Structure formats: structure tokens, C-alpha cells
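Researcher: I'm preparing a figure for a lab meeting and need a structural model of a single chain. I don't have an experimental structure, so a prediction will have to do for now. The sequence is pasted below. Please return the structure as C-alpha cells so I can convert it later.
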Amino acid sequence: MGSRLELVAETAEEYRKASKKDKGKMLDNLTKLTGYNRDYVCHLLNLCRGKTMFTRQGDRVIRARADFKLRRRRNRKKTYGPEVLQALKTIWAIMDMPCGKRLVPCMEWLVPRLEQVGELSVTPEVRQKLLSMSASTVDRLLSQERRKLAGKGRSLTKPGTLLKHQIPIRTFAQWDDARPGFTEMDLVDHGGGNTKGQYVFSLTVTDIATGWTEMRAVKNKAQKWVFEALKLIVTRLPFPLLGIDSDNDSAFINNHLRRFCEANKVTFTRIRPGRKNDNCYVEQKNWSVIRRNAGYARYESDKELELLNRMYDLLRLYQNFFQPSMKLESKERDGAKVTRRYDQAMTPYHRVLASDYVEESVKAGLTQVFNTLNPAELKRQITRLQELLQEESARPKSLAGDVAVAQSASFT
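Model: Understood. Here is the structure written out cell by cell.
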């Protein structure tokens, strides 16, 4: 053991004076001679000063000469102090804790917006630092604040075979993704792990081009309720509905939806059985929008249905006007390595404004709505409804049903 450490110590002075290329060769040679890991050899070389000798005590390597000195660590002044971090935490919480690559592109319009509505008050110096911060810096500063919970999803799709031969199959690459109006839709169950009885589902519709997402809770998977929710969602879209793509669930593969699409000249397609990636745009919203906000509890009462829809009415504004997302532009494979390139993060609202297919009058109307919204207030209201929903779901279902009957009787 001693001879290997001596060899490292004797090479240290030459190693410090060598070029980068020569250092690599020296590391390779020492790794072969000593049997040490390359990183460990590099660590020992950086600890050495002159002819310093090493000894080992247990698993630790210690110096043998009194004049051995560790390399000093530079005490560089922090660029982003506690006041910047506190402001960043506030913005991060308001925006529902996005990653740095999604948050940084929004800072240019988000910081002035929060200052305008009175949710953020910072000095000009702090403001400048917030606007000039990189995505990696944001992630590093917020690394201690990240606490995420991930749940395991379930699929309760039951195939509808009656009209499958009349509805064409669409694969991932067959639609024109550049034009708003081509959407994907899916149902998310709120059975809480128990599929018995009647319980609430959430219908999610996502536009492929812009990421604009609408959601609506329905009392069950009956075609009647799903179709009514879809008709309401169509009226809320800021562009004409041109196409619908669904899975093979019987809630979608039915005459109601087929006749609606034929009457309104809407393209109706379905994914290949067992190929969830065909519906990837809406599938990713099932967790990022529905599960993160509605959770995994069981909802079955009318009160819970009402609370969900009240939350979705606010969530559609918060999600579409203030939540940025990145779209995959290209994917290249080189052997086992896959390189993905994404565009700059933008909110669905800003993607609609950038689209040439949307009328200017519609864009002006959306801008008026945007100017009236306070993202922090929307977040607070959504959180309050989540708390009420959690309280309601925790109550015994029989008691919840009695309360619902009593409320309906009082209104009549």
C-alpha cells in the first residue's frame, strides 16, 4: 500500500506542470500501476504538495509530513443572496413549481405582471437578477425546496367495439400538428382504487399545436355525460374544433360522438389498441394537470362533482394562461444515445397568439382576459377548493349523501 502512495506522491509535481493531454496519459498510467480508480488517483494527486508521503489508517489516507497543505477553497461572494432566493421561491410557488427551463422564459413577462397585481415587491437590483438568471441556476437554488410526490396510475379503459370499424385509426405522425384545433381526449377515473359502484371521471381535451387544455368532471362514464361535457369544452376552445382523437373506450366510440363529428365536419380518429403513445399529448396531462390537482381519492357525490368543476373552471385559466410547456422539435438516435431538442417554453396562451391560424379578434379577446387575471389569486382559490374537496372526500359517503340531499331540498 505504501509503495503505491509513494508513486502517486512522486508523480504529483510533474502532474501539476503537465499539459492537459499529458495529464490524461499520466492518469492512465497511474491507474494501471496502482489499481486505483481514476477519480481516486486524480484526488490524491491534487492533495499532494512536493514529496508529501501518505499513510493509511483504516479506510482513510492521511498525510505523513507536517508541511502538507490542502488546496484552499476560494470564498467567492454569492451572486444571488437570500432576498433573490425568497423572491424566486414566491414566483416558483405561484407557478406551481416548474423546472428552470420552463420558468426562466416566462420571467420577462411574469415578474412585471406579479408586480403589477401587487404579488411581488422587489428592488431594481433583485429584479434584474431574477430576469438574468439561467435555468440551471434556478434549479440549483431551488434544489432544497423540491418535494414531489408521484402516484401510480391505473387504466380502466373498456373497449367499445360497435363502431370501431367506422372510425379510422390514427398513428402518432399522421396529423398536422402545426394548426390549432386538432385535439386528443381522454378520461381519468376518480375511483380511489375501487372500481365498484358509480364515481366521478374527468374528461380532458388537449390541443396538439398549442397545448391548450380543457377539463370537465362527469358523474360517470355514461355516453350522455361525456358528450355533454365535450360540447361545453368545444364552446370554450379559442379556435374551431377540427379533429378529435380518442382511445378505444366505449365512452368515445359511440353514435353520439360520431354523429356530432359528422354534422360539424370534425375529423374523428382513434389510437391503435395498446399504443398509449399515440395519445401522448393528453396522456401527459392526466398527471400534470388532473392528478396533481385532483389527486387519487374517490369522488362520487354531487358535492364532490361540483367542487371538481369549480376547480376546473379556475384551473383552465391558470393552466392555459400561466403554465409554460416545451414541445419536442426533433429526436435523433446515434446507437443507444438519443438526443432530444425542445423549443423554448411557452404558455398555451402565448402559442395561440403566435399562431397564424387564429383570428386577430380572438387573440385580442384572450389578451383582455389575460390582463384581468392574477396568477397568485388563481392559485390560492384552486388550493382552497382542493382543501374543500379533500375534506368532502374524507367524510363518510353516507353522510356526504345525506348532506347533498339536504342541500338540494333547501334550494328547492
